[in-house]
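Fold sample X.
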Amino acid sequence: MDKLKIQVEVAYALPEQQKIIPLAVVEGTTAYEAVQMSGVTHFFPQIELESAKMGIFGKAISDPKSHALREGDRVEIYRPLKIDPKQARLNRAKKG
């Protein structure tokens, strides 16, 4: 029997460009596998899949390689922070 296919999306954004790639994947596909299947790294070769932080609709997932997707999920690949948020707040406070 064929496994049920579910519809998901993979999203990545830069300040000047974004890409949302719709995919049909078999039930049980992980977030990491969906990102691999999406081909997003062809558009954004700077993404380092092994270390990239990912989330589902803005909620971070701790282990993309074991997080099974559900119908309608959007896997978001997060860019590394340029500066630690605490340091950014300190910098803003000093400028006051």
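Fold sample Y, listed below.
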Amino acid sequence: MIKLGFYGAAGEVTGSCYVVTTDRARVMVDMGMHQGEKQADEHNRKMIPADLPEIDAVVLTHAHLDHCGRLPMLIKGGYRGPIYCTAATEDVTAIILRDSAHLQQEDYARFLKHIHGKPTDKDANRQPLYTQDEVERTLPRMTSVAYELEQKIAEGITIKLSDAGHILGAGSVRMTVNDGSRTVVIVFSGDVGQTNAPILRDPVTPTPADVVLLESTYGDQDHKSMEETRAELLAILQLAERTQGKVVIPAFAVGRTQDLVFHIGEFIRGGQLKQLPVYIDSPMATSVSGLYSRYTDLYDERATELIKQQMAPLSFPGVIYTHSVDESKQLNDARGSMVIISANGMCTGGRILHHLRHNLPDPNAHVLIVGYQGNGTLGRRLVDGAKFVSIFGGDVPVRAKVHTLGGFSAHAGQTQLVQWAAPFKESKPRMFLTHGEDGPRKALHDKLVEAYGIDATMPYFGNEVEL
């Protein structure tokens, strides 16, 4: 008997986690953090209904926090097995988890500083999910697997990773599961990247499959074309140059930041911008950008061409990677036109909050929203047109111009998701739509029915199905 359990990213976009169980093995795919919604912390602290030491293996699709962010909790709970992923994902995950633990411990220290007396039992949910030590005990468990290489991970279970085109090292998982009497092939799409996105190669659909889990983050819409989005970005940057305005961009440290640096570099290399200062104010983004130079074999044709021309895709005159807190603070007092790219991408924490607090009241400033904003996040409130937002407990007026540039998303839009599923139109595998809110996944469901006659299921947290 083969069972599939959904323990995250089912009816929501974050907290990716799935468990495949047979009579001989139990394997988990992803263990991500829930982010944004009011119940996020409660969900993060609730472990899956399984004895963690009994899990044989974990497979990680990629290193975004909503896919890898709770891995140390497995180790904390007694898991001692391997965590399979690509080599690039292994390196990026180390950066992400160390930063996550650091931020959690900082937040808890700040909380302790502002309460009177010792924390009570009811304050237990304010404690970090895990510590730096637990991260360091997690990282040696990571085992790298090359793309398109068959790897046995448990009794009767093998995997093969294909390039998902989402961020550096991201993979879709083709899992072959044998329970002793029959074999079922399950494909986990992970997060599917856009085709023709910068730097990295286009996503690959693993085939064939009996069961498919397809992400649906943007299942209800297509992004603007890259040409339109680049033109819009360029126009905003040229306006900021003329008016001496600041451009503040909340961006995920992994993927989105590197894409933006690439595009701005192309504008400068093409003479469309002067040497507009571009500050990457995120130690994590700086570290991840450094990793890109180690994995040039994952580059697409244009990025490879730049390397051959002795130009770095993520470097150009005027780009500055900040490191210290003091360097970050100095940006708030600096005058003149500049671009500040800072984490985190949904504005739920990190240095970006300080930049927003200083720049949102300025009608000459621009705030560019370049990625998905979850329900309940500050980023979503800005997208929805809020006139005031709360930052660090104070009301901040929104006078800056807020722009939404959806074309830079690292996720495929509706049409590209349907195209990703095209190889399954004849076999019509059993399909589940995950990693999406109900509206987008219902819209994607309808498109899949219309295009291929595939009637996909929309599971919820805690659902378990027999395959």
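Sample Y note: The two ends are 8 Å apart (CA to CA).
Also: The first helix runs from residue 40 to 45.
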